[in-house]
DNA sequence: AATTTTTGTTAGACTATTCTAACATTATAG
DNA sequence: CTATAATGTTAGAATAGTCTAACAAAAATT
C-alpha cells in the first residue's frame, strides 16, 4: 500500500467516526485534495476492496479497509507517544512528525516502540491506540460543554488536535487527568467558569468546552 | 528536496568516497535504476547546483551537494544508532529502517535523537556521523587484510554493511573495540588466523579481513 | 587506425498522483 | 414540481520518476 492510499484510508476512518455519512466532498476537504482526484482514488481503493463505493452514494470502509486504517492510526499514535515520552516533544508538536513516521515499513520497528512505551493504551491526546489488529476501543467520554453547573469530571481526552487548541490548553494549565468542576455557565454564550484540581479557576469558551472530553465523576 | 533526490545525492556521496571517479553507470548500478533515468535525474540535480555535470564526464557533488548528502547520512547514522541503543535492534537490521526514517522532515526530531544518544560520533558500524554542517570526519583506519603476522590492532569499523557480512561478524563473536592479533596468514589464499581479545582464535577469509577496519596498536 | 565494446544520451512511453474544465446527478428551495 | 444549488463524475492534461529502444561518444582491442 502506498503512502497516499494510507492517507486516504486514515482520513475516511476519522471522518466515519465523526459523521453518519461521509461524502466524496468531505474526504476531499479533509485531505485538501480536489474532488476528481479523490473520486479516482476512491475507485482504486474500491477495486482493492478497502472502500465500498457506489456512484453517488456515501463512502464506507470495508472490513479490510477499517483494519488497515486502524493499523496506520496505531502507528501514528504510538509514535506520538514516543515523541512525547522519550524525545521531550510537546503534544502540540508531534502530529506532523508522526504523520510521516507512521508510513515506515517495518512491523518490528513499531513493535519495539510499543514495547519501549510499555504498551500504552492511549496517545498523548488521550485518544485510544488501536490494538495489533487495528481495533479501536470505543471511548464514551462526555463533552465538558454538556456538563451542568456543579458537575465534577475528569479531563480524559481532547476533541481536536489543532495546534492552536492544544497550545491554549497548555496555557490554561490543563492536563489530562485533571479534575474539573463546573462553577458557572453563562446563559448568553455558554462560556464556562471551572475549578481545576480544586485550586485554579479558568474561563472556557463554548468551543473550548466542546473539545474537552471528560469522564463524569458521579 | 524529494526523497528520490536525496537518495541520488547520498549514493553519489558514498561512491565518491570509494572511487576516484564516479560514472553515470556506477550511480545507476548503485541505485539499481537504469542509466537513462539516472542521466535525467543528474541533469535535474545539476540544474539545482547539487551535482556538477558535463556530458560524458565523471560526476561530482558541488559544495552544496556534499553538504546535503552529509546531512542525510548524518540522519541515517543517528537513526541507526538510536535503533541499536534504544530499540534493541541488531546492527544487521538497522540499515533498511534508517533508510526510510532519514527522509523525515523535521530538524528538531533528529536534534532530539542526537541529544538522547548523547551526541555520538560514530554509528553502530563504526562509521563517522557527519556533524550538523554535513561534514564527515576522515577516518584513516587500516584494513585488517593489510596487516602482517604478529601485528596487533583494534577493530574500529566495518568496510561493508551487507547483512550477510554483519551476521558473519556476529557469529565470529567479533565486536567493535575488540583487540585482534594476527597469528598466521596463508600464502595461498591470504586466509588469516587471528587471536581476539587474547582469548579466542578465529579464521578469516581475505574478503572478511578486507572489510574489517582496524587501528594499529604500535 | 579500424573495429568492437562499453558507456552515455536522447526520444518516447508508462504509472501514480494531482489538477482544471465540462458535464451529470441529486438535493434544496421556491 | 420545476429551477437552482450542491455534489459527483468524466475527460484530458501536468509532473515526477521510472522504463525500453535507438542512437552517439569514448574506451578498449586487435
Which terms summarize this structure?
homodimer; 218 residues; 8 helices; SH3 type barrels; two-stranded antiparallel sheet; alpha+beta; 6-stranded antiparallel sheet; DNA-binding; Arc Repressor Mutant, subunit A
- Number of helical stretches of at least 4 residues of chain A: 8
CATH class category name of the domain at 142-217 in chain A: Mainly Beta
Order of strands, main sheet of chain A, comes to 3-8-4-5-6-7
- Rg of chain A is 19 Å
What is the third-level CATH name, the topology of the domain at 142-217 in chain A? SH3 type barrels
Strand content of chain A: 15-25%
What would the average pLDDT of chain A be, to the nearest integer? 97
What would CATH call the homologous superfamily of the domain at 142-217 in chain A? Ferrous iron transport protein A (FeoA)
How would you classify the helix and strand content of chain A by structural class?
alpha+beta
Largest sheet of chain A: 6 strands, antiparallel
**Rough outline of chain A:** globular
Question: What is the string of SSEs of chain A from the N terminus onward?
Answer: HHHEEHHHEEHEEEHE
As an assembly, this protein is: homodimer
Annotated CATH architecture of the domain at 142-217 in chain A: Roll
| Straight-line N-to-C gap of chain A | 46 Å
Q: Low-confidence parts of chain A lasting 5 or more residues at pLDDT below 50?
A: none
Amino acid at each position: 500500500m502506498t503512502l497516499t492510499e494510507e492517507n486516504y484510508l486514515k482520513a475516511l476512518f476519522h471522518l466515519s467516526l465523526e459523521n453518519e455519512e461521509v461524502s466524496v466532498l468531505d474526504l476531499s476537504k479533509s485531505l485538501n485534495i480536489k474532488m476528481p482526484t479523490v473520486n479516482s482514488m476512491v475507485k482504486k481503493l474500491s477495486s482493492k476492496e478497502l472502500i465500498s463505493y457506489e456512484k453517488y452514494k456515501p463512502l464506507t470502509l470495508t472490513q479490510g479497509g477499517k483494519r488497515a486504517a486502524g493499523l496506520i492510526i496505531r502507528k501514528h499514535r504510538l509514535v506520538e507517544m514516543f515523541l512525547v515520552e522519550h524525545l521531550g516533544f510537546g503534544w502540540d508538536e508531534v502530529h506532523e512528525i508522526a504523520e510521516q513516521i507512521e508510513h515506515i515499513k517495518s512491523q518490528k520497528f513499531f513493535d519495539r516502540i510499543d514495547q519501549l512505551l510499555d504498551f500504552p493504551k492511549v496517545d498523548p491526546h488521550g485518544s485510544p491506540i488501536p490494538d495489533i489488529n487495528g481495533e479501536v476501543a470505543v471511548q464514551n467520554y462526555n463533552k465538558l460543554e454538556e456538563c451542568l453547573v456543579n458537575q465534577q469530571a475528569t479531563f480524559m481526552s481532547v476533541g481536536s488536535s489543532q495546534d492552536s487548541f492544544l497550545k491554549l490548553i497548555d496555557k490554561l494549565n490543563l492536563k489530562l487527568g485533571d479534575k474539573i468542576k463546573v462553577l458557572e455557565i453563562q446563559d448568553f454564550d455558554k462560556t464556562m467558569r471551572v475549578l481545576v484540581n480544586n485550586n485554579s479557576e479558568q474561563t472556557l469558551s463554548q468551543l473550548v468546552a466542546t473539545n474537552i472530553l471528560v469522564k463524569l465523576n458521579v
